[in-house]
């Protein structure tokens, strides 16, 4: 959107899109009016030379290394005033922000590079009287197992990740359970059998209806069968020889009595078989009906008892306000049926999640401290314009300030993002098992970790695009410079021209990343 407005409004930036000229104006009667300044729209100048111009507004890949003059050593180990020292990882570009983002922190890991900075500080302390307290600075130590950023990783990569080495999130199921505070837990338990009391109770509750049904259908059933079948001759029973044992005789007499009673048992009155049946026939049919009735009743009783005994039954058990230990035991015994409604369905993540970011070691080192920056800049002239465009001292204050600012912004943005995430709520009606709890929480943590660097990188990209798209002239003179025109100074136009890098291969008008190697010039 910002680029679109820039293209439509065409703000005055440099000679690539407009020139400010002085015109002599007259009115309709040819009377001379005061001098006026008007914009004259121009375009990007095309060249027929063999090299391709690198323009900051179009190309993003022009760059050059930083050179330190007078800090190399000759064969005898003495400083070579005519020699140059390529500062490892340092890149010069159109803007200070581009210069730093394209550079690496490699110099801060090398003792040889730190010694160059020491030479600069020592020279400052010797030639200038200061009240600064000297302190020792040590190079950074790279450990691959502790840092995911190598020393030669560009600062843009580190900033893109907000200088965060790693995230250390931790979620506590104990705290989650405490916040959920289930009111009760229920689970269903399926049983296959009743106890003896349950079976008897179940059978008795149904036996009354069964008796009534059998009393109604049994007489009719026996009457039909007797009419269809030929009457059989009663079987002659043989006399049971008497035993000499009196007890056996009494037992046999009892059995005989029971059999006789059952044989002659008749619980159905004569009217059950109709008025056309004689008394003898009714008695005989009643005895047969009673026997069939008792047999059917016994069979029904057995079937009903077996059905009651083997039929599964679902029981609902409830535990009020169970502790975490009880819940874990219930979950182990009944993993598929346990349910525990939470007393609060909305729980802030901060109640059971903790996220601790670990930033790049540069952000906790002395290189971003105020004391280090004060010592480095103590001997510099307040007017940095006196330093050459190739002298790194011209840009050193801005680089140190920007590096420190990036660390602070990264920490602040990260903490704000973490606080925003932890203040949001996790919504669930029922208590989640610990395994499912971690599975559902992990995607939210991953999303928070990825969104934070992305939002920060977008903000930096927007700021860089605004500066570059509007061709804002930096006071360091690294992207544009004012030139004295060759024609009449009085009638000259206020024009600028882009700074060229890499033997005129990189033009800061078309390329945002034009860079060269900076130097420490003595």
UniProtKB/TrEMBL annotation:
Domain of life: Eukaryota
Residues spanning the membrane: 207-229, 250-270, 290-310
Key words of the record: Membrane, Transmembrane, Transmembrane helix
UniProt protein name: Uncharacterized protein
Organism: Adineta steineri
């Amino acid at each position: 959107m910002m680029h679109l407005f820039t293209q439509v409004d065409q703000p005055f930036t440099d000679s690539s899109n407009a020139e400010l000229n002085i015109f002599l104006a007259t009115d309709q009667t040819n009377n001379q009016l005061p001098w006026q300044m008007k914009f004259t729209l121009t375009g990007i100048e095309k060249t027929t030379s063999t090299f391709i111009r690198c323009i900051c507004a179009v190309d993003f890949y022009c760059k050059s290394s930083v050179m330190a003059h007078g800090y190399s050593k000759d064969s005898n180990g003495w400083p070579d005033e005519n020699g140059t020292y390529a500062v490892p990882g340092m890149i010069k570009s159109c803007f200070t922000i581009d210069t730093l983002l394209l550079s690496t922190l490699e110099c801060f890991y090398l003792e040889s590079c730190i010694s160059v900075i020491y030479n600069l500080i020592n020279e400052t302390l010797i030639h200038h009287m200061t009240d600064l307290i000297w302190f020792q600075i040590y190079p950074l130590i790279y450990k691959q197992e502790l840092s995911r950023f190598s020393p030669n990783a560009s600062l843009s990569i580190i900033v893109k990740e907000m200088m965060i080495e790693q995230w250390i999130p931790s979620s506590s199921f104990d705290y989650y359970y405490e916040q959920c505070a289930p009111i009760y837990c229920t689970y269903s338990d399926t049983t296959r059998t009743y106890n003896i009391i349950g079976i008897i109770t179940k059978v008795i509750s149904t036996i009354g209806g069964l008796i009534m049904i059998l009393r109604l259908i049994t007489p009719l059933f026996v009457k039909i069968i007797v009419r269809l079948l030929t009457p059989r001759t009663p079987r002659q029973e043989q006399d049971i020889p008497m035993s000499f044992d009196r007890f056996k005789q009494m037992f046999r007499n009892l059995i005989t009595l029971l059999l006789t009673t059952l044989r002659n048992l008749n619980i159905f009155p004569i009217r059950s078989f109709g008025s056309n049946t004689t008394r003898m026939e009714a008695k005989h049919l009643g005895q047969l009906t009673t026997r069939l009735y008792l047999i059917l009743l016994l069979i029904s009783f057995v079937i009903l008892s077996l059905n009651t005994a083997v039929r599964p039954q679902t029981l609902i058990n409830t535990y009020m306000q169970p502790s975490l230990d009880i819940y874990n035991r219930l979950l182990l015994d009944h993993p598929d049926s346990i349910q525990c409604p939470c007393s609060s369905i909305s729980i802030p993540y901060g109640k059971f999640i903790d996220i601790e970011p670990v930033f790049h070691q540069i952000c906790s080192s002395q290189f971003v401290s105020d004391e280090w920056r004060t010592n480095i800049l103590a001997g510099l002239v307040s007017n940095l314009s006196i330093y050459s465009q190739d002298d790194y001292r011209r840009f050193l204050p801005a680089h140190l300030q920007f590096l420190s600012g990036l660390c602070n912004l990264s920490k602040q943005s990260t903490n704000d993002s973490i606080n925003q995430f932890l203040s949001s709520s996790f919504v669930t009606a029922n208590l989640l098992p610990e395994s499912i709890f971690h599975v559902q929480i992990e995607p939210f943590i991953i999303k928070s970790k990825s969104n934070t660097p992305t939002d920060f990188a977008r903000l930096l990209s927007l700021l860089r695009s605004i500066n570059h798209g509007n061709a804002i002239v930096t006071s360091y003179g690294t992207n544009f410079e004012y030139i004295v025109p060759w024609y009449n100074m009085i009638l000259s136009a206020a024009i600028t021209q882009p700074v060229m890098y890499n033997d005129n291969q990189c033009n800061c008008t078309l390329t945002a990343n034009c860079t060269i190697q900076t130097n420490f010039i003595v």
